[in-house]
Amino acid sequence: MGIAQENRVEVKSMLTAVSSKPSRSARVHPFTALDNAMSPHTLHVIVYYPRSPFGSFDLDSVRISLSELLSMYPPVVGRVAKTPDGILEVKCNDAGLRTLKAKVCVGIDEWLRSADGHDESDLTAWGDMPEDPSTWAPFRLQINEFQGGGVAIGLSCPHRQADATTLTVLLKSWTEAQRRRCIVHPPSFSPLPSILTDDTDAVKPNSATISKPISTKTATATFRFSSSSFKKYIEEDGIFPKASPFDVFAALFWTRVALVKRKSHDRVCMCVDFRRLLPNPLPYGFFGNALNFSSLEMTNVADQGIVHVARLINDHVTNLTVEKIRSDLNRVGEQELMYGGDLTIVNMEHMIVEGDPMMYEAVFEDGVRPVHVSYRIGNVGGEGVIMVMPSPEKGFGRVVSVTLPEEEVSKLLVDQEILRFEPKIILSGVK
Amino acid sequence: MPQAPMPELTSSVKLKYVKLGYQYLVNHFLSFLLIPIMAIGAVELLRMGPEEILNVWNSLEFDLVQVLCTSFFVIFISTVYFMSKPRTIYLVDYSCYKPPVTCRVPFATFMEHSRLILKDKPKSVEFQMRILERSGLGEETCLPPAIHYIPPTPTMDAARSEAQLVIFTAMDDLFKKTGLKPKDVDILIVNCSLFSPTPSLSAMVINKYKLRSNIKSVNLSGMGCSAGLISVDLARDLLQVHPNSNAIIVSTEIITPNYYQGNERAMLLPNCLFRMGAAAILMSNRRSDRWRAKYKLSHLVRTHRGADDKSFYCVYEQEDKEGHVGINLSKDLMAIAGEALKANITTIGPLVLPASEQLLFLLSLIGRKIFNPKLKPYIPDFKLAFEHFCIHAGGRAVIDELQKNLQLSGEHVEASRMTLHRFGNTSSSSLWYELSYIESKGRMRRGDRVWQIAFGSGFKCNSAVWKCNRTIKTPKDGPWSDCIDRYPVFIPEVVKL
Predict the structure, then answer these.
(1) Closest CA to B443 of B410, B418, B411
(2) A Pfam family in this protein (chain A) (predicted)?
(3) ipTM of predicted assembly, 2 dp
(4) Rounded to an integer, what distance in angstroms lies between the CA atom of residue B309 and that of residue B304?
């Protein structure tokens, strides 16, 4: 780590993928207050496949299924525009999804072993919205082909326009369209239910969203924990019966990161998707942001046992009621950065539907499942982000990715408590 | 139609009519002679009565040899007559290429790419937007894959792969529809105006389908949007010479290498209008195809105005100041097209118009010449001669102009307008998309006559007249199969972009 490398990813070409049917009405997709609060951040999903479904690229059937899918998602192929009142919205004008093709000069296994967070960011398109967004594509797809086969499909967008669940469902629906299956989670563009939005003010005009550059250099590392390590922990250390793997791993990382940061670091921001937490659950296909950010405090967390912290986390998540979600939504404009203002822990348990992790079910060809799925947030605040994601193996395993200042990540990589769980460490840049 | 060119027109028309009248007289001279003779003979016979006729007959004393010789002579003459009659040329079937949805070009995408590529030339971008707004194109027209890149990648490889994609898909479909085996193709004509690689596109087709080594193949390039009908004319001539043969015509225009990359306004116009398309047509002179053929070719008239300098230069390929090659369309294109059309219809009019129209036209001509020069010239009503019209979808202005000149109703030009909307200007293949539209609407009945008019650089105006051979059921597949129910659509004068 820290060794300068030349760019291993080279973008070869750029084109615009269009939807298959024109969207007939001049539709407009507005942003909610929550959407606007997410605006400094960008969202990136990277799905790694051992075998690429792309061939000649221009005439692939995968391109046709992408076009058919884009017909169902007019806001994805639209362009952001400002109303005369200065409010941003999406004009669904069919302009298209920008698609970039890139080549990686190493193989996929070598990449997963040796690439670090900065390398991985080359796999998706970055870049903030310019002053005049009329010709700027908010959603960008990047197809990165590895040497010797394998592909990483990167999809990025401003976090204002979609959350991780939306992008995951979109990619999964693409694979379903490709395999001529029924689309399990079709998109839903209805606004947030009134039970959540009754008290919120009308959407205020957006101030200029200039992202502050993060002063410290951040790094990302990904830890893969298997089912057996979780089971081992429960046997060895004992845990309360209702503990989920999220509680355990979130607690583990909170305590270890707090130790590394050497602050008492008693406050974290918990990010939970509230689609299924409402009395009338929103469908998974709900398009936009449906994230709840809530604060959680514990004094001297570094010295606490994992059991204690896990119980606190569990209580916090289980007690997310509609009223709590609504009050958190009302306060959403107060923070400047939703991710990283405090250490943020992202919960993705809802993506495991009936034991199957949704992102790993995005399969283009039978038998070729993704080997890894990364989620990256752009313009994260200095305190960092811990993401607890489902594992490709179903069960109690989890994949945890941490984005923190560089020295903190290097300390975490040799932390004994974490290594006790025998994680497989990937995408950390370790040679 | 402007009044100024009328005196020249009437003088040239007058000359043509005098010539035609003279031809009629000469062609039917025998009948003009025979009729009075037969009349006199009949009167004589009636006067003579039956016994006198018998007496005359017996006195002639015919013997066997004389009778046989006379009958052989008669049979010989009639054989020569039937053999020298031109063969009927059938259009067995045709197939139009339908591009994949990934090649679709919505207005917003086109304008966005234009802004990104021409970012230093906002005036050129504005010009393109104005053209696109008034073009009559819809949001489902298609450009080849190479043009979707930012910036476009018009390599020779990309051009070849576009050619392979459109031509082979259309031909596969044609082989499937007609059940023809590739080794049974006798004549192959490929026309593509602006892309002419070595080996030629016809050689590419022969290579792909393993056609016979003694095939008569021709590759026409550089002949513009009317090359489709030129190919039909060539096929007809070849099929007159070769008995019991069939001919495949492939009409296309390869867009990839010809996408103008500069920013000269007059040369940006084709970028806004030309789109991807191809058609493969099977023609035959075999008697066995009589039952399954869709159309019979009645007439094909080619008019070339190249002798006139203004017509020659009006569609001109040249380099702009920066060295980019593009096609310059002159401002008087419509006027020249009008003149070419008039030249063509004065030739085709007498061939297809019923005698009543021709007589009326003649009388009005006489009236204007002799009695009152201020009389309005009589424009023959072509709607009496044809049930369907396929006007090359060169652009909205062309269709508007022809609709006005020929006094056609909205329904007559519907096929052309809707083809322009759905597929854009696909150059030589657009006539076949229009014909397919009429068939898909279920309007083609046995005996219907279709007039296909195409314009091309040079300046040429070619027209073909087909007669429908059998009532055509609405096709289940074809370029219009998934969208015909949405048509006709109302195309506004200006689409707000």
Answers:
(1) B411
(2) Transferase
(3) 0.91
(4) 12
